[in-house]
Amino acid sequence: MSKNKITLGLLEFGLSSYTDNPVLVLENVIRYCDIADELGFNRFWLTEHHNLYRNSPWSSPEFLLPILLNRTERIKIGSGGVLISYQSPYRLALNFKLLANIFPNRVELGFANSHPKEHIRKLLVPDRDSNIIKDHFINITEVSKFYNDEVNILVDDSIFLPPFKGVTPDLFLLGSSFQNLEKAVELKLNFCRSIAKDEDMANKQWDLINHYMENFKLAHGITPNISIMVGFLCTKSHQRAVKIHSKIDVESIYLDIIGSPSFIYDEIQKISEMTGVSNFVLKDLSNDFKIKFKATELIAKEFSL
């Protein structure tokens, strides 16, 4: 049986357990992106997260994106994703549209339905009750409308997002289920799906992807990007990868693939064959950037990126 041609991207949180210096962590993240671009990975996403790690170099990575775009040649750079419930859709659409026109066809904007702790929510949305956050699709709909209906918005609402009729970023809905695929079609959203640790990969729900792709193409005339996100930890030795992973304190609720390059290749091929998806976004579970750098080399070689 012929193997599917797999494309791989990376998801990065900017966390490290090997230094207390956030500037050093930031330098490592920038180098990580450089390596990913050089080795043939197709995207590099940074997460928005509001935690209490003192060595975390960012909470919102938005201002880091143009730096990464300017340093790299071809890799797509994006936020995977913004906490859209706590954002101004207008401001977000303005900034990402400008960025997409400076770096055409390389900017991606992912939407996450996550919520920080209450005291952070109050800082993000000081003008309203942080415990009564509206449906995140209301804000996503506004961003989508700014990009896909700009003529009517200009005529009817006197709202203008420069450059007029310019390039727009690729929009992604991030989720752990298929319950919002119809909404994704309506709003012209690509889709990135995380997989639960105990999920039945043979579940016929994966057939919904084909319906989503067909409906999307009928509605918009183009084929959407479907990606699967999994955690991984890779070293040359399968046993060493398992040993390193066993020392990681945080228990993951998502599917993690731990082992040698060939093992990870085989496992991702299995998922691809069961789901029909050939685009993957990988989150390296190691907080040691030396291991991450080497893992990208091993994976790129194994997958012939």
From TrEMBL:
Q: Which InterPro entries match?
A: Bact_Lucif_Oxidored, Luciferase-like_dom, Luciferase-like_sf
A molecular function (GO) held by this record is: oxidoreductase activity, acting on paired donors, with incorporation or reduction of molecular oxygen
Gene Ontology CC, one term:
cytosol
Q: Name one Pfam family in it.
A: Bac_luciferase
Keyword Oxidoreductase in annotation: yes
Gene3D superfamilies per the UniProt record, alphabetical: Luciferase-like domain
Q: Where is the Luciferase-like domain?
A: 23-121
Q: Which UniProt keywords apply?
A: Monooxygenase, Oxidoreductase
- The protein's name is Flavin-dependent oxidoreductase, luciferase family (Includes alkanesulfonate monooxygenase SsuD and methylene tetrahydromethanopterin reductase)
